[in-house]
Write a structure and sequence with these properties.
It contains 3 helices and no strands. The protein is mainly α. Helix 1 runs antiparallel to helix 2 and helix 1 packs across helix 3. The protein is flat.
């Protein structure tokens, strides 16, 4: 049995909050910035995955990967 949409949204928000907290505690500013950018994208991915069997952490990881992929395409990553 799947989650309700509000329950899933809360779980995704908890995962985002945990990522931000760990980034701040570790003092990794690039990860903190990445988590902010991913949080802007996560609802779009969450809505796209509504009928799929994804874990809230998967949605957050997809958001992170999509932000990193855009940076790579835009030349934002040094080789």
């Amino acid at each position: 049995m799947g989650r309700t949409q509000p329950s899933f949204t809360s779980a995704v928000d908890r995962e985002l909050g945990l990522l931000s907290l760990v980034a701040r505690r570790a003092g990794i500013s690039s990860l903190a910035e990445l988590s902010v950018q991913a949080s802007r994208r996560v609802r779009e991915l969450q809505n796209a995955s509504y009928d799929e069997e994804l874990d809230p952490r998967d949605v957050v990881l997809l958001a992170l990967i999509s932000v990193l992929a855009e940076r790579c395409e835009g030349g934002g990553v040094r080789s």
